[in-house]
Hints:
By secondary structure, the protein is mainly alpha-helical. The protein has 23 helices and 7 strands. It has helices at 10-18, 25-43, 50-62, 69-95, 101-116, 139-147, 153-177, 182-192, 199-204, 208-224, 228-233, 245-262, 269-296, 317-331, 335-338, 343-353, 357-364, 380-391, 400-414, 420-429, 433-438, 466-469, 491-495; strands at residues 120-121, 129-130, 446-449, 462-465, 478-482, 497-502, 506-511. The longest helix has 28 residues, at 269-296. Residues 1-30 and 36-48 have low confidence and may be disordered.
Amino acid sequence: MRFRRPQYDARVGSICYKSFMLPSRAVQLSLAIALAALALLFGGAPLGLAIPAGCLVWALVRSSTDPDRRLNDTLRALLLLYPLYIGIIQISYWRSGEQGVDFGIFSQLIYQVAHNNRFMTTLISTEWQNFLTHHFSPFLIILGGIAKLGCTPEAILISAHTVAVGMLIGGLVALWRTSNAPHVALVLTATALVLPGVRRALGWETHDEVLALPFIIWSLVAHLKEKTNVRLLLLFPPLLFKETFGLVMFTTGIAYYLDDRYGSTKSSNAARRAAILTALCGVGFFVLITKVFPWWLWIPSFDPSSRLLGFKDLLDPELIRAKVRWLFLTFAPALPFAFLHTRHTIRTALLLISPAAYNVAAIMSTNFPAMMDPYNYYSITPAIVVFCAISLPVLQHRRAFIAILAALCLAVVSGRTVRSSKIVRQAFTAPSAYAELRVFIPQNSTVIVDDYTASVLADNLYLQRVFHARRTRSSFDYIVTSKALPDHLSDVLKKRSIPCHETPRYQIRCRKQPTP
């Protein structure tokens, strides 16, 4: 049997579902309450985890009496609510001024494209700088064109993120449905939404990793359905989001080639050649953007911040512990499926993991602490791809449904607490951080901001991060820092400014006027 078109045995599904037929409604209700309490205790997200966990609870309770249409419709409705929930969280973080610095950078770039027709930012350096010298992300130019129609950059970014989450959910359902197991597909999708590195990444900040991932998942779907041209075409859109997806294209193309050549059903020579050519295009694109393109722009390197380890750093005990923790939390929810594998399906799973090979290698060889955080957006591709790759080949196993339940429990227990009830409430009730600051900060002023405040003042004349300003004597009118972050102002910045305003969430310092 080849993994491309796994056939799902209906008798196996019947055994899986019947194994959860409980003796009474009271016991069923107790199970539902227990799972809900588990989600509330470890996830801290009554709404966020109620949506995916509710899918599993409903599947277990109703499968014995209604395994077909009503169950599927209910699960689909719950999953369709998830992108809406993610969008509300995004709005909440922006209104409360808690979005990360990347959201501020992207907002500033979209604003600049829409109003000044330039792809420049002040948040990656001490001066205006073309963002293409930092990352290759032309999708922001496209979003800037949309902003010319009158949309705000923040609304565009949040909408794009919400659409991407919807595409991701659809791709995950389609991926698992290639096994002809609709119930399992929907429940697995619900479980995937609470994986470490997924729930936090989807809900905290808009990022190119999140926006590009759905195309990779849909490419895998096309591959499993033997649509050889579509699978390769879907690998090209991620190149618009970040240069590193050229390496993801390379590893995915090689995986397709190996499956075409050594799978039980041989594909045509043309399909294999196309897969190799696509892989070469991916690595060629990465080299072009990171090595040749900077030379054309007369800059020393593409991204000057070193994120690779030196040889001595590889033996740093603290970094080793952080990476081992990241590996465990990334792979742990998929471990229940590992016990169902055979030698053949293990080879299949390793092949399917290939699209995440670059991401795993990059995180294991970096000295950039954020990338080793299991709940950072850098973890979303490994978490999703690894979970799909290890679970997909064994869906026809008799104990597959038990593995799904164990995977959900591991995902919930290992996930970081997200107080989504509070977050959703503040999306509708909290005063806007933008309005809170605009009373004191004119739009035409030069402002030094911390990472949270960058997303609120992205349309200001000139912004500079505290991270950069503390190293230089930059001119400024105001310094705005969020009370939710530690004070990282240097002594020089404090001496050159005085406290002049304070709001419930921000400390504002004004430039000290020279003594006459």
